[in-house]
User: Fold these one by one.
Assistant:
Number 1:
Amino acid sequence: MDNNKLLIITYYWPPAGGPGVQRWLKFVKYLPDFGYQPIVYIPENPSYPIIDVNLLSEVSNEAIILRNKIVEPYQWASFLSKNKTTKISSGIIPNKKKQTFLDKMLLWIRGNIFIPDARVLWVKPSVKYIEKYISENGITTIITSGPPHSLHLIGLELKLKQKLNVRWVADFRDPWTTIGYHKALKLSEFASNKHKQLENKVLNTADLILVTSPSTRAEFKQITSQPIEVITNGYDIEKIGDQIVDKKFSLAHIGSFLSERNPRILWDSISELIRENPLFASHFQLKLIGAVSQEVLDSIALFQLQNYVLNLGYVSHDVAIAHQKKSQVLLLIEINSEDTKSIIPGKLFEYMVSERPIIGVGPKGCDFAEILIDTNTGVFADYSEKEKLKNYIANYFSLFLEGNLKSNAVGLQKYSRRNLTEKLVGLLKR
């Protein structure tokens, strides 16, 4: 058997766009540098909510790609409403007060019929396919990446097949039952308990559990005594060169702007600065890059900021990187919830190497605030600190007028994708 072969089971893979694809795309890129042969198992006919064909060029030539057909309920649901199913699939859930009957029905089906998620129908055919491949190719280590957490059920079934004798690493890019949108799925008591049972079984069966934040590690340690290690997301060396910085005082949010991730204290702070300072009003621009929920747009309009908005929608990863480098200030917003303290958005690390300052807004005590401060890449305010947030924006605007607005980052190297892959390899060799 070749112990250097790694079978990686993931749903998101190019041409999928969005943050979910980046983690294992980059691990696979660097694993051969450390003597490992990555074998990536993906769906043959996936229903990706976001497409970025440019990412196809980043797939390692040394990776072996295995594809197997998947039954996608979201494709069935798209006959009812393609727009609604695409949004639910990408995590954009309508505000509870504004949900239509169709919204409620689709959410109920998603939460109660397909447990743990809509990709659960891929589990059985995948186990059959992978079991045969493992036996024929001497695979000793498999890695599952979730969400979708149904992929961990593939790992679970393969691990329980004693004749295979595989080591199973379960990688959690996000938590399971405490992830932000989980409560919005209208779960019955049965469905809620089923999620917890599956989570418990996965966490207590996997040989090694990987998480992206210290808080998720602490949460999972309440459930299992299996080894849990933190490997955050990170940044890579991008081919996008230096950019000319915007002439406007641009605050840019890059990525999905979900309904619950709606920082009214930010809109309020900006609105006050516009009323109080005509110079600020003449220079200010709010850039929204990525899918934005209607609730966020409505809030922006409520604070009379709509005329300052440049809404570019979803763009390719390369274009997003370019905007990170040329925007004056980058916005990192997380939902104000106890459940989201553990979320360290993947874009944080790309933000940090853009050389532009970051304004973070999130729940008090969240993990990403500590990284911002430790690396000197930005400032942070929780949802109770409106005056602090307003002062941060005003101070950055003053530096902008002086021509001195920039980031002076420290200690970023440990977050490079290559160094994170080296950490992964070290864990695999234990």
Note: The longest helix spans residues 189-205.
Number 2:
Amino acid sequence: MKLVFATNNKHKLQEVRDIVGDGVEVLSLNDIGCFDDIPETADTLQGNALIKARHIYEKYGFDCFADDTGLEVEALDGAPGVYSARYAGEECDSEANMQKLLENLTGKSNRNAQFRTVIALIVKGDEKLFNGIVKGTITTRKMGDSGFGYDPVFVPEGYSESFAQMSGEMKNSISHRFRATRQLSDYLKENYD
């Protein structure tokens, strides 16, 4: 089975390919010649994932899936949430986003947070949603230098290391994206093998 993953993010692509395994060929947007700037205009993770998946399915005709991920922090009423990638502004990077997050949590004792990934799958016009959540806490400073995004400031529940201090294999075995992708993978095996 061939599925297009609506991303060109090499980290995410490799993570998903590792989780899904050999039964499904996962193509990137680049692989199908899609260089469209797909606007993520929804105010929910589900909405953004569906926008991207529908765009690929309707314009290119491929069975596909898309994800959206957000870091949801209790003390900030769920922020940055759907705005995680552009929390410090449209032109900002992970470093600026982390700085803003740490500044906004200064003096707050509740540092509970969760990463949530929503995957929208479209196969032959049928739409399905999968949710993956990993709970944890936000550190007071960056720890580690692997991973990407908010990984250096997020410690998953039951661990003392941040995502950025873990090996890729360890992070992939417990992450929000792993959990959502595992549900996707199980669904594909049950329905399309």
Note: The radius of gyration is 17 Å.
Number 3:
Amino acid sequence: MIEYDELENRMILKLVYYGPALSGKTTNLLRLHDLLEKQGRGDLTVLDTKDDRTIFFDLLPFFLVAPGGLKIKLKVFTVPGQVKHDATRKAVLQRADGVAFIADSQLSETANNFESFKNLEENLQFVGLDIDKIPLVIQFNKRDLGNIVSEHDVRSTWEPTGIPVFLSSALEGSGVVETFTSLAGHTYDHIDKKYFLKETHGLDRNTFIQQLTRKSHVIPAIKP
């Protein structure tokens, strides 16, 4: 549901981090925000709800300008994880252009991961989006803890779906940028099919991702 103003020649994209309570959605965004260069991101905004919170920030507060003149801004949101805030989840998912599902790697959270992913599918449908068509990546967070689902089990379960899967410890910073980079790349591919970002506006995939992930250390390898 890309927000595109043809008259103003600008586009606003929205990425949403979704998952069960305490899976590390907020930690991912806090860490991502810390890793990016200050001139490339806006301030964090925190919307507190009882026992939970939603945060977001503008990744490109002053717009990325493609060679052809198209201006692009990207907003990144989390949703509250608790079931009682489901109305807020739906509201945040409105007009989403891509989703990162943050699962909790602890074996004790397997059922919660399943219920949350099912809830994501239902809520996407509720707001008029198709989980099979929207850019989607999965991150199994909290790999730094004990008693977690094995990497073999994660990959054997999810890789046959074709959905990109990442292992992460958001608390330590590992896997955070890789998850975001993949989601940004798949979002670019989805938009390019409709708006011809490279052909019409001169913005190729790698440049788009590099502009989003500007930071002081090496950007991870970008894979199609």
Note: Helices lie at 25-35, 86-93, 110-126, 151-158, 176-195, 205-212.
